[in-house]
Protein 1
Amino acid sequence: MTLQSAEGAVEEHGSLQREPGAPGLTFLASIAVEVAEPIEVGETAEGIRRIIPITGGTVSGPKLNGRVLAGGADFQLLRSSTMTELEAKYAIETDSGERIYINNFGIRTGSPEDIAALVRNEPVPPERIYFRCSPRALAGGPEWSWLSSRILVGSGTRLPAQVRLDIWVVE
């Protein structure tokens, strides 16, 4: 038998157990990724494929600051009229000159009308779109090498010529 007390403790088979707390989050940075016109690959066996070139951008945070380097891309797969899978691969250069490779997997969902508007490069109020991501960061130098041993999560907003990401480190 399982009983829960007012303090959140759970009693199961006569032993008292505490429900685990959620991990903390520490804000890392906001990334403004500038993008060019999409390259439409078209309908594939998995869905509609698009490639969105990354042309630059900025990184700003309490400690991590720098710029997004041109040359990356966001490889999108429109799985349905309401869901898009995103996989962006690009590099940032910190203000101290260290480079960090980013491989960011994300999900963006919304109504069919809102997702269609985003595909047409039209603005959609961010509160109507679920846009979450889990970037992986691999540093090419010692200052930020610790990022490769951490889980990062983010929340995004898609604008016509830019993607804005707020990134946190899971503690």
Protein 2
Amino acid sequence: MKLAATLALPALFLALPASARTETYRAVGTEPGWTLTIERGWITYAGDYGKTRIRIKAPAARPSFNGRRYVTRRIVVDITRAPCSDGMSDRKFPDRVTVTIGRRSVKGCGGDPMLDKAALDGSRWTIASIDGRPIRTARATEIRFEGDRITGNAGCNSFGGGYRIDHGRLSASRVVSTKMACPGPGMAVEGKFLAIIAGPARIAIRDRTLTLSSASGTATLTRTD
């Protein structure tokens, strides 16, 4: 099925406050245990199993080799795009993170955990938003992952195809759908979603929210099963 690379959707979605679009970056390390978040212009660090705590205004990130760097008077955070395992579970992350405080450095992993098909198999989702804007379609959306198949309804027609996940990115292939016309924004939402999953789309799950981001846009899904 041929898809348009981009679709103009400003009239089809509800407005979303800018504050709701703010992304949170999380990193974690072990031995000793530590956590770090970068959110809403602040860096928050808890180290030594919570005994050491730092909260400081986040500067603009500096480009570094295959990543970025945050330098403050109290803490330096280096984020490198390279697969990382936290050493305490089977989870894999997209980034390696080094936190330096004074002369001491700790290492860990950051970004949303990278997923495989096992994490999605048998799950059902509804499309909550496209490019940060909540959607309304006359026909309810439902996206299903079963084995190596992705099927469902993205706002208008039923569709189905294969998919794979490679290094935390999802790509759908051989997608076919019915050819029914639908009133309202359903067809535009469907076209945008199918363009996103054609991928490769970075995939992340946090709680019951699935995010798919590709060059064609970002789709946020809410789990329903």
Protein 3
Amino acid sequence: MTTPTPTIRPYTLNAAGIELSALLALPDHRTTPRSTVLAIHGRGMRAAYWNAFIPLATAAGHAVLAVDRPGYGHSAHQLPDGQSLPDQAETLHAALKEHAAQHDIGAGVLLLGHSDGGKVALHTAATDGATPLLGLDASGVGHTYNPEALHFPSTLGAGATRLNWGPLHLYPPGTFRASRTLLAPTPPRESAETLRWPAHTRNSPPASAYPSASPSPNTKPGGTWHPPPSTR
């Protein structure tokens, strides 16, 4: 059975004065979506990272709002250094509030985050907002980093690619060449905060109201999480 191709359109959100670029796709076969998936991309990527996921979600009746995180896309000129994890969560809450005022979000919002976007999803789920959150799924983010990765200056360089993606021959030919069109500069604040993430998770008690699922090999699925103390 062929998955219908949804209409994915560029979309702009005013998140309390911060202009966020995004992609919006709605399910075709129902007027009210079952829910809205807020898709949060990872380090050095853009909202289009989720293009392959979007048809699967809309075919199941969900709307998808894939955002360019603060410091990426339209907000890069306004936030050239990016934002801290707590500030990104606050900005996304403001964006969701505006979106929900203009669109039917169904039963609520499901947070979907990959890599550094998974960190933002965890912070967003564990802080209060005006929009009802149903749950979250974070992948590609662990409590600690692989020690072999610590000396790589870039997640795309040499052995770092192998650690992040595994054996490249397992992917269809051209996958990584094509994916380079999704790359974007990483904001400096995000790069600096990445190094502090393991300390944040070690010093933070697990306590959050939202269940999480994370297939990352360095994390345990289920359970709860609370955002660590962090400077902004």
Protein 4
Amino acid sequence: MPISPFRFAATLLHRLDGARADLALYPGRSGSVDVVLREGSAAALLQFSWSDRLTH
């Protein structure tokens, strides 16, 4: 099911007040996401990526 980048980010950040997501989508159905959540002097970073490329 296709999903827009806006909807993907909104779903990912649901209930994470103050969080920011940077999305990169590439041709070939691959991409990456960086999510940053800051509170005071503390910060949390979640990074993940995906690829449609088969590995053997």
